[in-house]
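Honest question from a wet-lab person: if I give you the sequences of every part of a complex, can you actually get the arrangement of the whole thing, not just the pieces? Trying it with mine:
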Amino acid sequence: MQVMSFSRSKLLKWAILLLAVIGLTALTHFDTVFYQTPIAQVVRVKENDSHRTRDYFANEDRSATQQLTVKFLNTKRKNQKITISNQYVASEVLTQKYRVGQRLLLSHKKWWGIIGQKRDTFLVFTITLMLALTIGLTKKISLRIIGSLGLNFIFFILAILLDINFEDAPAVFIFAILTIVFAFITLLLVLGRRKQFVIVFLSTILSTAAGVGIGAITIAVNHASGIHFEYMDFITQFPIPLFYSELMIGVLGAAMDESSDITAMMFGMQRERADRSFGEYFVSGMRVGRDIVGSLTNVLFMVFIANTLPMVFLYLRNGNTWSYTIDMTMMLGLLSTVISAIGIVLTVPITSWLSASLLSAEKRLAR
Amino acid sequence: MTTFVWLIIILFLLMILVAGKQGFKAFIGLIINLAAIFLLIILINWQFNVYIVTVAISFIILAVSIYLSADNQEVTNHAFVASLIVLFAVVLLIIPINYLANVQGFSSESSEELEGLLLAVGLNFHRIAFIVTVIASLGAIAEASMAISADLHELIESTPDITNANLYKQGNIIGAQIIGTALNTLFFGVLGENLTLAIFYIRLHYSFAQLINGKLLVAAIIDLFIAMIGVLLTIPVTTWIVAHVHAKKNKLQN
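Yes, you can. This is the full assembly:
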């Protein structure tokens, strides 16, 4: 039996990747010169005025004031020390307890204040670690994966800029176009310009539209009873179009995932033996698709529900009932999950039907 | 409430219509996972140890997501073990990042949502941030390990005499293809989820310095990338488990 051995070049590759992650992360330690914002490091912490608190709902907590001695790392005040006071509550819902060694972004108006902790180090670390793993594990296609993520992110920002600067253009329209662009870029880079690309692209767009469409119609027919779009977080414009925009983007990845899995198998069938009927293709497509509906729905469910948790705890701790808490904090996440799931389920017959039609038509043409 | 009930009925019917028994199981899986999340909320709210509760609930969620999605015992067992190992690695990664990055709770930008709420709630939000990151990664880890395990077993079935070295090689190729789309599922899921936050930040004309250090944005990005790291780790872990068991079996037969 051949034993799995780490070849030298493999070891070297991982060593270089690891060094790159550590190096880039370490660089953020020295990037303070590039900051216009004053940055200071906490060198001493003195805590005073610590006292227990007990609120109306019998929640016991601790509130305290810190005297932070900080040393400037940049600007013309470099190496100067000042003292800033910081109030915090031990549960750290909104405030933060600072420790020696942490770096803070400061603002100066009449007096010095803390904007927040300098967090770029951890941002760079997680991003570079993920990129290094992608390069190390997916080899040849890693560039395409990273390229599609990067390009998609750029288009995401562009679409938002469009939405903000052209108030007249309907948000749903802008983000629907964005969704199509997303699908095009991603599939082009991941699948290449093959026949499979056309089918996956079409069925992704169709299924996303169908899922969100069914959701929108159901909501409209029921006059959105029980749904409070105004509870969406960080609302700066009319919320309902944004809800549908979020849904379209959210469901897109899962629909692409499902659709490419189904078509990959069906094209494999064709390579094996091209002489098959529509029914044969369709049934196989449906069989592959139905196995992954559940796990894909779960991916989105976990992402949507995890984000709501901090607010759920805050509401429950504020003496709210479960039904009120769910209504206020989780309902939109659950609604997104269900509508996304509808889109994911619809991807199965839509993809199977499209591929089966094309593949069986090809057979007829070949004759 | 009625809109939601209608949508659930539509989803249920579509799942049965399209996926039959498999669809019914997927639907039940979603409900059990939702129940597990509620159990998590209750236990944490009662101040049980966050790390133990989170890992235990994650165990349930992974088991439900994997065992209800396929019937082949070997495929599911291998995927489950792989996802547990990956979960363990992800938890080990999250704990120090969470401690150092301090992205817990809310920030001053959330003031509108926090209006009227008391904030000295006696629940450590540092640990809540840990829960959020772990839970957000679970679905993707389960999906990726399941997909890789299923494909590798299919490969073994079609070529039973495949050598172990070849299996590793195929595992990496298959894994890379699956991971490409799995990363996208996560990426767009999180992007969609954070659309309003992104619009909000861009509207505020924050400086670049404020953007890359801001609590909420860094939190969202860390959550996404840690989940992606979890997905990536499923390639070597799942491949290793499947190949290991396959090698053992071959030895027994010879």
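Two things worth pointing out. Chain A touches chain B through 138 residues (CB under 8 Å). The beta strands of chain A are 39-54, 60-72, 81-89, 103-108, 112-117.
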